[in-house]
Design a protein that fits this description.
α4 links the parallel β4 and β5. The longest helix is centred in the middle third of the chain and has 13 residues. The chain is built from 13 helices and nine strands. α4 runs parallel beside α5. It is an alpha/beta fold and 306 residues long. It starts with a strand and ends in a 38-residue tail after the last helix.
Length: 306
Amino acid sequence: MTTLVTGATGNTGRHVVRELMRRGDRVRALTRNPAAASGLFVPEVELVAGTHTAPETLGPALEGVSRLHITVTSGLAEVGPELVRRAVDAGVRRITVVWGGTVGPVEQAVANSGVEWTRLEPQEFMSNTLNWIDSVRAEGVVREPFDFPGAVVHEADVAAVAAVALLDDGHAGRAYNLTGPQSLTPRERIAILSRAVGRDIAFVPITHEQAVDRLIAAGVPRADAEYVIGWHAAAHDASTTVVDTVEKVTGRPARTFDQWVDEHTERFQKPEVTDPVTPRGSASDAGKTNRHGEPDDLNDRGAGEL
């Protein structure tokens, strides 16, 4: 049997692919650009071209698939129910869905699909910290509108729960609230990041409107930007209270934010710049710089997919 992972190059999707492969599953990864994504996975992963926001094009990708993983992203609400219908018609019998923060049209379509389903409800991803890379590197600051605590969860833990729900029995019809082992404010997360990179990082408050405008400038539709910032504006019990769902489902404790930072520290280091003076007799070296750390991965900042 084959599992199709949509959003396979996103922050969570890539971990779902890797976890399924680790467990010996046959995986088909949906991506807009298979050639660019080939370096992310072992050769045994079957890369197929497409996007879950165009379900009418996914007939070949769904052929022979019995399990499906969906990450709800911007633009999916309108076409997600069609994706679910086409998947079920093609023979999919088990679906996991990472919600978009509420039970919307896609999540409801999954629940009404008539097949086994599990909804994953992470409250806030640790990978959202990747949005701080540019300002930390360039200025040593993080700009956020709020400083409320959040029980942020490692995206690999969300993927681990997804893999269990896809491959093991006993999870049908369940909605799993997923958190990390600590509830941390942005300032507390910044302090952990500061220690890891070895430099002070300042917290700079911005207004609600500035935060919305920043998302819009990054290409997020206004309605989605307003929703995201509005969600962060209120401290919800579900988002601040630590639960042990990850450990109960996977059999091991949820990863800490310190662990996440250890995995990504180099990405936040200030790039080193070589001496711009051209050595005599070496004009070809003029203006070269040393780029510290590895290049950004595909669609590395956000929950979308490539």
